[in-house]
Design goal:
Layout: E1 4-7, E2 11-14, H1 22-33, H2 35-38, H3 43-48, H4 50-75, H5 84-91, H6 94-129, H7 138-154, H8 156-182, H9 193-197, H10 204-214, H11 234-263, H12 266-269, H13 275-283, H14 286-320, H15 339-355, H16 358-386, H17 403-443, H18 451-454
Antiparallel strand pairs: 1-2
Helix pairs in contact: 1-8, 1-11, 1-14, 4-10, 4-11, 4-16, 4-17, 5-6, 5-16, 6-7, 6-14, 6-15, 6-16, 6-17, 7-14, 7-15, 8-11, 8-14, 10-17, 11-13, 13-14, 14-15, 16-17
Length: about 475
């Protein structure tokens, strides 16, 4: 398929291919996030106990449902690569757009690093179980990132088709584990006595602290927006893929908490590296153990694969608009992918995967995502105010406006407090990093931006302007 876009004053330039459907959007969103069921979410149990972990699961579910609703409306209208970055560019302004683009890139790149760390950790665990201690995890971490970067380099259709298959298998593994445990195929029965004996070991503050890692259940569902320029019908595919994705994740998150909390002591669960795999080991079934090993590997690969896709699209979009050097805005002449952005971000992911602890990498990703969600609240209100219903065509209109935006803002503010309780120093350091980056853009980089070229939506003049 050939798809070319004329650039003002430059003749024809290559653009991304429109080859994706709703299933690919679902695979991108769920594929990025499903690893949150296989690792990371359980740190919320360590923060406040089993009940706190469940509350964090559902409160974070409300937060991300608001994110999915808002994103479905805005992105089905602003159908451009870069997702939330493109939204900020058209609705708010350049400084906000630069920051949102940076939030996206760092959130997905850190999530990619966390996935690679988990691959190495799981293989080391299995090697120890087999009597081969001291496995060097680094070659597997490097190989996973390089293989997925190569896959993304070669084309988006093959990348997300691969994601669809392995994401579906990883999701089915959770369902099979739940059914096996629920219907008595486990040597260890479900036991929830810890809920009554010690429901809140750290009191009510534990529920607040648990919200930090509760976001890991769903972090990345907003990545469906990054495919906006590569789907055949944005108005249909993006809302359908995003909303079905959040429903899938709500089911998977609840089943994960139910199984793991019933099979593993909360003290162990709160610090486990691969909780679902550990739960399968406790059942005594070799078949379940193998299935959840495959599910964990597939979920981490699907997540890292989607993260490379999303972070590179955001970086590519910023380069194309000259928010970053225009060199990053190139499309591969054969594979039609943002290949320079893909290659550039690989060393950054490797540095964090090989040199940072998992909880620190997870927190970096969560905080970057959280800053982006905070922007969405204001973005949605400004979008409806500037272009009310009926003024422009929307592929999807989310109900109950402005309640989702307000709920999202309140939950984001609460989560900042939760993060500060355990990772205050990292929170402050990250905010300083983004402030310095903003100053760099404002005082240096913005002079290279061609304001007229970056606005591509054929919208009427905003109301009140």
């Amino acid at each position: 398929m050939v798809d070319q876009t004329a650039a003002p004053g430059t003749g024809e330039r290559l653009s991304l291919l429109r080859v994706l459907g709703p299933a690919h959007v679902w695979a991108l969103g769920v594929g990025i996030v499903l690893v949150g069921e296989y690792m990371g979410w359980n740190f919320s149990v360590g923060k406040g106990g089993m009940i706190a972990g469940l509350v964090a699961c559902w409160v974070a579910g409300i937060l991300y449902t608001c994110v999915a609703m808002i994103d479905s409306e805005v992105t089905s209208t602003v159908a451009s690569a870069g997702g939330q970055y493109a939204q900020a560019k058209h609705i708010v302004g350049p400084l906000m757009a630069f920051n949102v683009g940076l939030f996206l890139v760092m959130a997905y790149t850190m999530l990619e690093s966390a996935n690679a760390i988990t691959v190495g950790f799981l293989l080391d665990t299995v090697a120890n179980m087999s009597g081969h201690e001291g496995l060097d995890q680094r070659p597997f971490i490097i190989l996973a990132i390089l293989f997925l970067a190569w896959l993304n380099y070669r084309g988006v259709l093959a990348t997300l088709t691969f994601n669809f298959v392995i994401t579906a298998i990883a999701f089915l593994a959770i369902i099979v584990l739940f059914l096996a445990v629920q219907f008595g195929f486990s040597a260890t029965p479900l036991d929830y006595t810890a809920i009554t004996e010690e429901p809140l070991p750290y009191g009510w503050v534990g529920i607040l602290a648990a919200l930090h890692f509760g976001l890991w259940y769903y972090l990345g569902i907003e990545g469906t927006c990054q495919a906006a320029e590569e789907v055949r019908s944005p108005a249909r595919s993006l809302p359908l893929g995003t909303m079905s994705g959040i429903i899938t994740l709500l089911i998977a998150a609840t089943l994960t908490w139910y199984v793991c909390s019933g099979l593993l002591p909360w003290e162990y669960l709160g610090q486990a590296g691969t909780p679902l795999f550990d739960a399968a080991r406790v059942t005594g079934s070799f078949g379940l153990m193998v299935l959840l090993f495959i599910g964990t590997i597939f979920s981490t690969l699907a997540s890292a694969n989607g993260c490379i896709n999303d972070s590179s699209r955001a970086w590519f979009s910023m380069g194309r608009d000259r928010y970053l050097p225009a060199w990053f805005g190139a499309v591969h002449p054969r594979y039609r992918t943002p290949y320079r952005a893909i290659v550039f971000l690989v060393p950054i992911a490797l540095i964090f995967a090989l040199g940072a602890p998992l909880d620190q990498v997870v927190t970096f990703s969560i905080l970057s995502g959280l800053l982006g969600y905070t922007f969405m609240s204001f973005n949605m209100i400004m979008f409806r105010r500037k272009w009310p219903l009926g003024s422009i065509q929307r592929g999807y209109v989310h109900p109950f406006h402005p309640i989702p935006a307000i709920v999202l803002l309140v939950l984001c503010a609460t989560t900042y407090v939760a993060v500060f309780l355990g990772y205050g120093t990292q929170l402050i350091a990250m905010l300083l990093f983004y402030i310095v980056a903003s100053l760099w853009f404002h005082f240096w980089r913005y002079r290279f931006v061609k304001r007229g070229d970056q606005f591509t939506m054929p919208w009427p003049r905003p109301q009140g302007y």
